[in-house]
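Following the same procedure, the fold was encoded as tokens, giving this record:
***
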Amino acid sequence: MLSFYVAAGSYTNDALLRSIDFLVRQEELDPLATRVSMLLLITDSDSTIGVTNSARILPNVRQANSARVSINAFALNWKTGHRFLDHLADQNRGSVRRCCALRMVLASELKRFYDEISRPLLENVRFRYDEQVDDTSLSAVDFPAYLEGSEIIVVGKLRPGATHLSVRVAGGSTQVIHSFHAWYSVLHENVQLF
């Protein structure tokens, strides 16, 4: 059991690193367990104690995490680290929600966000393309979860002379794996914008 205490300040770097370490150790203790490891960082300010520079926090988290733990953030005001929280979630396959509401509404917003991220529609979502796509041009193709109301975007380039786009998408839950395949013909036309 972890114990928590309230302090005057925000130890974002230490909190994230210790939490990632805890979850990674749990995974190592039971590697066959079927679960998606995730963190929910709830914050009302930028980091104020310890490592406070987001340019140092992000690589620290990236090194400790290796994208194994999905990191989500709930900011209790609109001013809190917009870019930092967005980068943190993007680099660690998570989501960000900001709420600047009355205390009564704040609790329901936090609960709604937690319900959204804690019950993914699909887990371990993977996009696979055939040889017509330049693999080196692809953005992320593996995602820990697909959440209701969210979107997944994969960007890449077709190889010169490609005739089609073929993609296989797979994901599932602890009980079942879903998969679908799509094939699209590529039209080679000179397209001029504006």
Q: What stands out?
A: The helical segments are 12-29, 54-65, 82-91, 103-118.
